[in-house]
Amino acid sequence: MMGYLKTDFKNNRSNYKVIFIIFFYRVAHFFSERRHIWWSIIIGFPIRLCYKILVEWILGTEIPASVKIGKGLKIHHGQCLVVNSKVLIGNNVTLKHNTTIGASVDLNDKFIAAPVIGNNVIIHPHTIIIGDITVGDNVIIGAGSVVLKDVEPNSVVAGNPAKKIKTLEMTVND
Questions:
Q1: What's the predicted TM-score (pTM) here?
Q2: What is the domain-level CATH number for residue 89?
């Protein structure tokens, strides 16, 4: 957890609100993954409850403690972010405000599948990513995009629905 926090803090060093959100997320996630251990239930429940109240309800950043996020998460502004609990997010991902990453649902409102976001992905503001899709590594998703299909690695997509507009020649290393 310390390695994750160090990289997260480095990526968000000038935004104390986001550092608070990410730190609290990492701690809540630590206890969320250990809910079957008795001491973790006793210590973790109040931490997860405070996380839900402070981060999700008050600060408006809905990233459930059960979401699996790689190291180096970067958040711009931290407002109006909604991430489904089934989403997987890779390393060095940047999330900007008013972004929704959600699962598709069936007719009975049960989650079917959620997106998998690769490494080194930048998701610009007002983006919606929904369904059983994979966003490859080294991808940039333009502002206001609606992503409903898989996105190839090393590409730039934008629009509603999102379409590939460019292939990236240079890739970012971890």
A1: 0.86
A2: 2.160.10.10
